[in-house]
Amino acid sequence: MAIWQSWQAEWLAQRGYLFPWVPVCLGAGVAAYFVMKSEPPTVQYAYALAGIAVLILLGRWMNAALSPLAWGAALMVAGFCLAGWRAHQMDFPVLGWRYYGPVEGRIVGIDRSSSNALRLTLDKVQLERVSAARTPDRVRISLHGPQGFLVPAPGQYVMTTAHLSPPGGPVEPGGFDFQRHAWFLKIGAVGYTRNPVLARAPPDGSQKVFAARMAVSAKVQEALPGEPGAFATAIMTGDRSAMGQETLHALRVTNLAHLLAISGLHMGLLAGFVFATLRYLFAAIPAIGLRLPAKKLAALGALPVAAGYLALSGGNVATERAFIMVAVALTAVLLDRRAFSLRAVAFAAVIVLILRPEALLGPGFQMSFAATTALVAVYNWIRDYQIPLGPRWTRPITAVLISSTVAGLATAPIAAAHFNQFAHYGLIANVLSVPLMGVLVMPAAVVAAFLMPLGLEWIALWVMGKGVAWILGVAKWVSELDGARGTVISPGPEVLPLIALGALMLVLWQGRLRFAGVIPTLVAFVLWIQTERPDILISDTGALVGVMTPDGRALNRPKGGGFIAQNWLENDGDPAEQDKAAERWAMLNPASLPLATVRGKKAAAAPLDCDKVRWIVMNADPPEGVPEGLACAVLHPASLRQSGAMAIYKTEAGYKEITARQVTGTRLWNAD
Question: Which of 102, 155, 161, 627 has the most Cβ atoms closer than 10 angstroms to its Cβ?
Fold first, then answer.
């Protein structure tokens, strides 16, 4: 009885504080959909909808101590249904084979690949001898070899001869699932071309916003040549195609890469600058300031500017999320509510999850809401407990230090888990750069945008360039410090959810029970430290093999499969480059390996020798097939296409094999 009374008292203490748990429950349902190994049948959604109705009724009839549980369960089921509906909404053709031939389409995206190649995304695709029903809605092609015959323009129809293939699965079991990512972008094939891309027809005028973005990008780079112009273009229009790899590396190593992403920081700075400017302007006009609600008018003025920035930036997921959060804050001002509260953050998260449930799995969503939630919680505690921030003249500096520290700590585990690195001096770089973004760079960007129709944007861009040059200088200086970049092993799939659960418990729960959130957080870090990497990794083509050694992973090739090699080494927490990892392979004793590698079609056609090996890995399919009765397993491209990349662990009982398909299951985005 005493336990029940204690339970009731604990739940009743949460009354008025439960709304921030809505996106948590909704997100749990979304996650449940994505971790399933097979696609739920249609009838299961019917049962789920009926279950939601039953849970809602139970929530209305139960007492105050139990009804939140019913509502939470209903939200979880709703999140599951939302994710399933969104995934089925994306249903479109995916290329099911390797294609080489003519490709025609309309340019709807221009960016750069990880190898710094210019990359075009095309829709209205036409492939030779491929019916419309089997042609992907969109393809993405990296441009290699001599180009220069075409300056890509939004909406332009182009043609080339390209190699295309289906979007690849994870580079290792449990790794990033590009097939799923491409599914929600409607990209049904990826590839490259070494032939010139030629114009087939001029732009059709349908990509007006995209064309405006690229026009602004060209003007900015004309006024600010070099890396400062590329940086300014990235934060104004989201176009990163001019960014150099060295600059990107310096920004990542110093934890300043978030300044490139048009996210909550940029949207907040822009909306805040416009809001403050309009409010001061209205206050200076007695007829408005004394008779009308200037604060609400300023919020009304800032909202369409933020919406325009959303359109100009390309409207990607991160920017949509940032706009929703800003729109919620400005709407709160209009409704005389607190602009920055956990309720506002929760409301923004709910909207994002309803519109794009798949965003939950991305680092952008996780880092953005982790930082925002932590900042709001910390500043709420400072306000509630009246913690002094020092003399008035030091408060801005103190606020920057607090904000950078809190946001950095909140996002560090997520960034380390997704990108396998952490910036030892990231706090220094952010303290030296973020204030300048707020007081100089973003205000100058706003002024430049308003001056651009008059042809006077160069004035504001000159000022902006000075601030950007400082930020890039800080990034270069800090990145060159000894030990600037640290590496970390990839955690298991349970680590980030446990960290999130613990952090949410600490922030959202009311009462002493909140400190129970420390337990799952500590468990997560213990599991992370104990993570074991595979002893052997085999790519899904059989071309690349990695064997763990005391000195790190040894790779069988110094070149080729660079993206896969880079991911393997990063997931190991190994800063070595592929060529250095290949040198380790040369030091291995072939007789000590449980596998043998076979390269080339001629070698694949030769008789197979299974003596002393458990696996033979080939990068070409045997022309006559694999003979029966072999004492070892033969892994070749055809078999690996079915299983995906393979990880092998050495255990006391022998060897344990895990394939990518076993982890991902058979879903809409990887069904053959």
Answer: 155
Q: Find the domain containing 504 and state its range.
A: 495-529
- The reply to whether 352 and 254 lie within a common domain is yes
Number of H helices, E strands in the chain: 25, 16
Pairwise CA distance, residues 25 & 360, whole Å: 12
Domain assignment present for 14 = yes
pLDDT tens string 104-128: 999 988 888 777 788 999 999 999 9
Measured CA to CA, the distance from residue 584 to residue 554 in angstroms comes to: 5
| Rounded Cα–Cα distance for residues 395 and 390 (Å) | 6
State whether 501 and 481 are in the same domain: no
Do 243 and 381 have their domain in common? yes
426 and 313 together in one domain: yes
375 shares its domain with 515: no
Q: What is the pLDDT of residue 245?
A: 82
- At residue 347 the predicted structure's pLDDT band, cuts being 50, 70 and 90, is confident
Beta-strand runs (E) in 610-645? 615-618, 633-635
Q: Strands, DSSP E only, in 186-341? A: 187-193, 198-201
Token pair belonging to 146: 């001599």
**Rounded alpha-carbon distances, angstroms, from residue 437 to 150, 269, 273, 430:** 35, 8, 11, 10
The H or E element that residue 596 is part of is strand 595-598
pLDDT at 1 over 60: no
**What is the C-alpha to C-alpha distance for residues 576 and 483, in angstroms, rounded to an integer?**
14
Among 190, 206, 222, the domain boundary falls at 206
Helix (H, G, I), strand (E, B) or coil at 134: helix
Contact 229, 464 (CB under 8 A): no
Q: At 191, give phi and psi (nearest 5°).
A: 180, -160
Q: How many domains does the chain have?
A: 5
Report the relative pairing of strands 646-651 and 536-538 from DSSP bridges: antiparallel
Parallel, antiparallel, or unpaired for β 633-635 and 615-618? parallel
Torsion angle defined by CA atoms of residues 33, 563, 185 and 326, in that order, rounded to the nearest 10 degrees: 80
- Do 599 and 619 contact (CB within 8 A), yes or no? yes
One domain, residues 309 and 246: yes
Q: Do 469 and 554 have their domain in common?
A: no
- CA-wise closest residue to 120 among 132, 136, 109: 109
Q: Are 518 and 547 in the same domain?
A: no
Q: What is the CATH number of the domain that holds 141?
A: 2.40.50
Q: What number is the average pLDDT over the span 551-568?
A: 91
Q: What is the full DSSP assignment across 445-504?
A: HHHHHHHGGGT-HHHHHHHHHHHHHHHHHHHHHHHTSTT-EEE-PPPPTTHHHHHHHHHH
pLDDT of 64 > 70? The answer is no
For 223, the enclosing helix (H) or strand (E) is: helix 208-223
Query: 262: which 2 tokens?
Result: 């048009």
Per-residue pLDDT, 440: 87
**Sign for the pseudo-dihedral over CA of 655, 656, 660, 662:** positive
**pLDDT over 70 at 339, yes or no:** no
| DSSP run (H or E) holding 408 | helix 395-419
